């Protein structure tokens, strides 16, 4: 099995190093042979080659069995909306080129972190949500541009039946292995893409009679996620809504620093923290590496089918937390100073 | 001054009755002469005339000085994405026809309701956010439709410089009268409309040197609203992002049942609760009328410049809460049964 490591920008570098170290350790412990390679992407790739996703990187990605990914982005582009070459273009191109249409984001709170969230513990306790965010369509990939002498901007959102069906099927199937409830989130009272989305999900439902299907408008869902997160089991939604809702839902897990995601499609899979490049803390050694470590666990489970190995990682994280160790983002006033870890130690 | 009452659908009827009663009372107490008329909109208008916003209603709206609005919507359309005539069309048409481009949503927690939110009191305490949601542009009003034999759906998001500038100015000016901080929310790392949005806000900033301007991506903002709501003062954002974020932010105020909004532009203003028609509780007499009451307060303040009258209403709501009275949505286990009010009583 061949794993490509793509640390990307900012804290992506620091945390992916730890994620990789865990893969090396697991391979050793369980007697697997993984080979590794590394490639550039994002701002670091622009600096080196002028291209946020160099052909060489894309080629290496296609030849991998799975990719452990960090983050891309740099504040310098955020404040320059007119920049023509941007780190995120690499990310979007990777998703499209590799056909990574399904982004899975499990949101589960480790019991030890009940205190780290801004939401009340009694509301949180027992929350366990699996998001399926569509990742290669919607307003992210439609035509966009300017007109009227640069005075009007537009973005086209688009979905085909086929695109909705394949992500919805993945979500229905996942619901079967879990709480058997599927919530499809859209804005069908306003958007035509959402009306198509809802039609397709409704048409599939009879094939999954064991699954209870609910449809929610995105505004109501954004509210309900905070008011009553236990109400959700599997959630399926479009690219843009998924982007917003999963970041919001990270608060259910106490910190973005704890959340891993898997982007899969027809071939290789990309495993990455949902946090970004976080340049404000880059290089300080305080980044929480657990999202990358948990991304490694997802990689073993989903791309390699190595359930036991994956669970060994999750248990180790659980034990670390039970023993009271914390990185700064999940520490609180009661955490003793000698239990506050830096990035390497947490790994 | 002429006020048009448009109760609309579901609990819109019940709560708007209470909102109007408060206006009548205030006029009496402060010696004002308000005249009233009533008109149909939404599902009730479809049933009566086939049109969610009959011409007669629109005409009455144009001739009003302000409109006290309830809610529109009906579950029957939600489960039928192919319905050609929908209550929401009336709402969107009203916004467009009356030029209501600025939707103001103040999110402020009454101290007595600290316990009603799913967010921890220490995170919430002191939160006070004023949202400016753009209301007549974006993906709500662009061309939308189907192609490829009905197998592909599309929606076009569009913004012109002028549209962004006028809402941004309103937000900058409001920030001047408050905490002097403005957060503009967009998705400029992906959307061209957002890049235009950011350009315009950046270009205006030098005209308001006393205001500290920050730009956030919508995903980060959705997270930060829950993690640290006190970080926000005035927030300005596009139509779709505003829809999602303000519903989410309602949790900061404990309940949607407490939140009023004002939609203003060049002529008359529309004042309405941010909650919807809530058919699940319609007719049970349990709906919280305070959002409609607070909408009446906003109406007096913004459309009529009657600050004292507006504050009298807010104080009365505050006193009601301080005296321990609650409708069901904001009651908790400690609320004694004799302090639980129905809709009329709360009015
Ligand atoms: C960086 C950005 C383009 C990206 C997205 O919006 O998809 C990120 O927010 C994510 O969720 O992976
Ligand atoms: C009913 C719907 C069309 C509307 C919107 O999305 O604008 C509502 O959610 C609102 O916020 O007023």
Describe the structure.
Chains A, B: Keywords: Amino-acid biosynthesis, Branched-chain amino acid biosynthesis, Cytoplasm, Leucine biosynthesis, Magnesium, Manganese, Metal-binding, NAD, Oxidoreductase. Chains A, B: It catalyses: (2R,3S)-3-isopropylmalate + NAD(+) = 4-methyl-2-oxopentanoate + CO2 + NADH. Chains A, B: This is 3-isopropylmalate dehydrogenase. Two copies of one chain form a homodimer. In chain A, helix 1 packs across helix 11 (290-302), helix 7 (161-176) packs across helix 8 (192-204) and helix 11 packs antiparallel against helix 12 (307-322). Chain A is of the alpha/beta class. Chain A folds into two domains: 1-103 and 259-347, Isopropylmalate Dehydrogenase, CATH 3.40.718; 118-253, Isopropylmalate Dehydrogenase, CATH 3.40.718. The first copy, chain A, has helices at 11-30, 43-49, 55-62, 75-78, 87-97, 121-124, 161-176, 192-204, 218-227, 239-249, 290-302, 307-322, 343-346; strands spanning 2-8, 35-38, 66-71, 102-108, 128-134, 144-147, 152-160, 181-186, 212-217, 234-237, 260-264, 269-273. A ten-stranded mixed sheet of chain A has the order 2-1-3-12-11-4-5-10-8-9, with helices on both faces. Chain A is 39% helix and 20% strand. Chain A starts with a strand and ends with a helix. At the A-B interface, strand 6, strand 7, helix 8, helix 9 and helix 10 of A face strand 6, strand 7, helix 8, helix 9 and helix 10 of B. Strand 7 (152-160) of chain A pairs antiparallel with strand 7 (152-160) of chain B. The complex binds 3-isopropylmalic acid (2 copies). One 3-isopropylmalic acid sits between chains A (73, 88, 91, 243) and B (189-190, 219).
């Amino acid at each position: 099995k061949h794993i490509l490591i793509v640390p990307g920008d900012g804290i992506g570098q620091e945390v992916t190093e730890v994620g990789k170290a865990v893969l090396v350790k697991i391979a050793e412990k369980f007697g697997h042979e993984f080979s590794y390679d590394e490639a550039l992407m994002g701002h670091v790739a622009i600096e080196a080659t002028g291209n946020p996703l160099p052909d060489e990187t894309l080629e290496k990605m296609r030849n991998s069995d799975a990719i452990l990914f960090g983050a891309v982005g740099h504040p310098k582009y955020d404040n320059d909306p007119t920049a023509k070459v941007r780190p995120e273009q690499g990310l979007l191109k990777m998703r499209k080129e590799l056909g990574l249409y399904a982004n899975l984001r499990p949101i589960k709170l480790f019991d030890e972190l009940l205190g780290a969230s801004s939401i009340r513990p009694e509301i949180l306790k027992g929350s366990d949500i699996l998001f399926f965010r569509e990742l290669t369509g919607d307003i992210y990939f439609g035509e966009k541009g300017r007109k009227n002498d640069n005075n009007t901007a537009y973005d086209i959102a688009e979905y085909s039946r086929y695109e909705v069906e394949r992500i919805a099927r993945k979500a229905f199937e996942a619901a079967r292995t879990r709480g058997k409830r599927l919530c499809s989130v859209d804005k069908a009272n306003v958007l035509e893409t959402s009306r198509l989305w809802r039609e397709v999900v409704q048409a599939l439902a009879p094939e999954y009679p064991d699954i209870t299907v609910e449809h929610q408008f995105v505004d109501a869902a954004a509210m309900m996620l905070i008011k009553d997160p236990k109400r959700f089991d599997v959630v399926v939604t479009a690219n843009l809504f998924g982007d917003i809702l999963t970041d919001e839902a990270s608060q259910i897990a106490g910190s973005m620093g704890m959340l891993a995601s898997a982007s899969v499609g027809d071939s290789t899979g990309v495993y990455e923290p949902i946090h970004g490049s976080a340049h404000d803390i880059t290089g300080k050694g305080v980044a929480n590496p657990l999202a990358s470590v948990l991304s490694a666990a997802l990689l073993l489970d989903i791309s390699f089918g190595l359930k036991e190995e994956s669970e060994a990682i999750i248990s180790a994280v659980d034990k670390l937390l039970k023993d009271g160790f914390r990185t700064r983002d999940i520490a609180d006033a009661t955490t003793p100073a000698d239990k506050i870890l830096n990035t390497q130690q947490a790994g």
